[in-house]
Design brief:
The chain is of the alpha+beta class. Helix content is 50%, strand content 8%.
């Protein structure tokens, strides 16, 4: 059994979607970051960086924070959604791209454009410009692939699960997915998956999955 500590954010949904795709038993615990629950001492013992999500795997005794590490751990443990052979490295490469670029930069767009619009024109322009650049990078990557990792048509993997929840907030980023047709097709392909639909609503329902 896995205890999963999370909230209704893209980072939380990355892992909840993976847990649902794996079809394994887990218990979701809400950590309401809007009320500062991520700073509670009990959560600090699990996640020293005070960020969701985090897991405790009671089968192995592993406690882990950081979404990239959690996703690699679960994919390795259950032998799913991480390609083997040479395709493995593009999956990890693009997972790192999400961790170091797509997530942090889109998060800044949310902060300055969605929640604090008008407070810093420079920041809005800087992060919105970078968001559009990253969208172009991903759109190019998906030009000849159904999924991000691998060659040819690609293979659905943790890389897609990591990127998709951030793209699902395209409205917050003031992005028209119609400008990025390859991303739009990929986005809809993943949104149709039942496990994604379930994982999107963990730990609670907020909205339906946004549709372009």
């Amino acid at each position: 059994m896995i205890d999963f500590y999370t909230w209704t954010t893209p980072n939380g949904r990355k892992v909840s979607i993976l847990l649902e795709e794996l079809g394994i038993a887990y218990t979701a615990h809400s950590v309401d970051i809007t009320n500062g629950e991520q700073h509670e001492p009990d959560f600090l013992k699990i996640a020293p960086n005070n960020r969701i999500p985090a897991i405790v795997d009671h089968e192995t005794g592993v406690t882990m924070m950081e979404t990239g590490a959690i996703m690699l751990y679960l994919a390795e443990k259950y032998g799913k959604f991480l390609p083997e052979g040479q395709a493995r490295w593009p999956a990890i490469e693009w997972l790192m791209w999400q961790m170091g670029g797509l997530g942090p930069m889109l998060g800044q767009v949310h902060h300055f454009v969605k929640y604090n619009k008008g407070k810093s024109e420079y920041s809005e322009e800087r992060y919105s410009t970078e968001a559009r650049r990253l969208y172009r990078v991903l759109d190019t990557r998906l030009a000849e692939r159904d999924f991000i990792a691998g060659d040819g048509r690609g293979e659905y993997s943790i890389t897609d699960m990591a990127c998709w929840p951030w793209i699902s907030r395209f409205e917050w980023q003031e992005i028209d997915l119609g400008e990025f047709p390859n991303i739009k097709d990929w986005y809809m392909r993943i949104a149709d998956r039942p496990a994604v639909q379930r994982g999107y609503q963990v730990p609670k329902y907020v909205t339906d999955i946004p549709m372009p």
